[in-house]
Amino acid sequence: DREAVPCGAGTSGHQSFLRPSELKSAMEDRERLLKSREEERPRELQQLLLVCSSALSIPLYLAFWGADLLYAPHLKWEFLGLRLLLVAGCLLLNRLIRKAGSLFELQVWGVFYALINAFLITVMVFWAGGIASPYYAGLNFVTIGIFGFVPWTLPFVFTNGVAVFGPYLLGSVLYWDSRQANSFFLQAFFLV
Which helix (H) or strand (E) element contains residue 66? Predict the structure, then answer.
């Protein structure tokens, strides 16, 4: 325990040293902290998904029905049906998220949460005029909610990217209108 191990510059600018017992204690503290963080992560993700669903998706989807009344009054009932479908989907996912037992399972349900939000907005985009429809802006909200608040593991970042952007990009290819190409590229730029 007499030998000291260099551990970097101290506050006075001189090299500071740790004894092997201090170094071992510091490493054990770090391991405990990392283990605690890994145990806390699923609870944190669960709470974030529930908040995103209950405090973001459901209220925003319902509130924007007012925009449907102004922008697409001829589709108001169809869009209300889609918005209520999202509410039902979020409530079902909330139950599944509460029962999830692992970080992996929570992230899988999170992908479905991202998919239902993005898919229903995408349906509205194409029903309300296609690629150039201002409804694509709803995908910006989904993107902010999914990628701005939720700490996904790297594989699920990519999976959620496909879930959010895939339906819009696929619909854009299937219903391509060269007259709307500029709008598509501009909107794709802002989405990504």
Answer: helix 65-71
φ, ψ of residue 133 in degrees (nearest 5) = -65, 135
pTM of the model: 0.73
Percent pLDDT > 70 in the chain is 76
Tell the residue number behind the tokens 């709470």, with chain if given.
Answer: 47
Q: How many CB atoms lie within 10 A of CB 185?
A: 10
Contacts of 15 (CB under 8 A, 6+ apart): 6, 8, 9
- pLDDT score of 1 more than 50: no
> What does the alpha-carbon distance between residue 44 and residue 46 come to, in Å, rounded to a whole number?
5
* 121, 138 contact by CB (below 8 A): yes
Helix (H) or strand (E) holding 5: strand 5-9
- The pLDDT score that the predictor gives to residue 149 is 80
Task: Supply the DSSP symbol for 180.
Answer: G
Nearest residue to 124 via CA among 92, 191, 77: 77
Q: Which amino acid is at 52?
A: C
- Distance of alpha carbon 149 from alpha carbon 127, whole angstroms: 29
In the chain, count H helices and then E strands: 8, 2
CA distance 83 to 16: 61
Report whether 120 contacts 86 (CB < 8 A).
yes
Amino acid at 144: I
Local structure of 89: helix, strand or coil? helix
